[in-house]
Amino acid sequence: MPYPFPAPSSDVDAFRNVLKKSVNIIVVAGAGLSAGSGLSTFRGAGGYWRRFKATTLATPEAFEKNPSRVWQFYHYRREFALRAKPNAAHYALARFTSPQIRESICAPKSTFTVITQNVDGISPRALKEVTSSVSIPEGTHEHPHIIEMHGRLFDVICAKCDHVSWNINSPICDALAGTEKILEAEDHEVNIPVENLPRCEGCGELARPGVVWFGETPRDLDLIDDLAQNADLCLVVGTSSTVYPAAGYADIVRGCGGKVAVFNMERTSGDEDADFLFLGPCEETIPAALGIAQEI
Ligand code: BJW
Ligand code: ZN
Questions:
Q1: Residue 184 pLDDT > 80, yes or no?
Q2: Where, in this chain's numbering, is Zn(2+) bound (predicted)?
Q3: Counting CB atoms within 10 angstroms of each CB, which of 26, 119, 229, 278 has the fewest?
Q4: Does residue 294 have its Cβ closer than 6 Å to ligand 1?
């Protein structure tokens, strides 16, 4: 046997045999899950907005320095996400949430949780859509079907009093209207006064997007740790596995004796340790590996 582990397999039948024995299954998803819906990823060629690296705008410091620019970035992404449609990978994962569908594919009484780093709200939307055709029990606070660990684009949080409101208005405020069409240089940058940016519904102070920036604590970490420690299979879908703590969940699963399957367009950090590696667009590889046809 090669040292330290054999190379990951891309054998779908072998993967299905593992699924058949799996009781607690988690997915750790990233921007690549929504790439097939037309959304940009964070790293690589697509990871720029105007001339800025997306990751440099996803920080509390960037917001403090230039809330107008950061709000324009998030307004652009809100507008895009609102109009984007779930792709075949979102739908396959949503359908897999149905215990009836898993019954013939996984071990009896299996559980399935999608832990997504994405803030675009497309996975919850796909889940809502498929519940009209497949039976899915309501998720609960303790056992949600989807955990949006980096927050949600459509939550707006007060930067002062922490009041949270769900807001899908398009545009979110008059001053941001049309700025999503400005795509290039700094010359065209509109500087919106803070009083015209989104404000807290409660206290009227400046509000911010309800997402988790670098240096902030992701949501539901205790719940996710529990899920990872008890998982016997982890599907790592469309993430570069470079941002922690999400990048560490596959290791936790493996450390507790579970298996890991990576679905990505390209080789990513740590995938050599995975049991399975399915290279290609996840909107093709996920439905194929799970054996779930798109029926929506
Ligand atoms: C396809 C595809 C297709 C394309 N099909 N595939 C060591 C340990 C712990 C923490 C740290 C550490 N070192 C540093 C830290 C801190 C930091 C960190 O990890 N930094 C790294 C850069 C090193 N982490 C944090 O600050 C986090 N907080 C934290 O650690 O708090 C402390 C704490 C921890 C634990 C307990 C208690 C306290 C917070 C991280 C927040 C990240 N925020 C962002 C922005 C969110 C809002 C927004 O969307 O704007 O999250 S940054 C950005 O990166 C975003 C993403 O969710 C995240 C991950 O990116 P993702 O999804 O992987 O995207 P890409 O672009 O990198 O990859 C896409 C992949 O898809 C590629 O591989 C493509 O090939 C692939 N792909 N098309 C399949 N069709
Ligand atoms: Zn407030």
A1: no
A2: 158, 161, 200, 203
A3: 229
A4: no
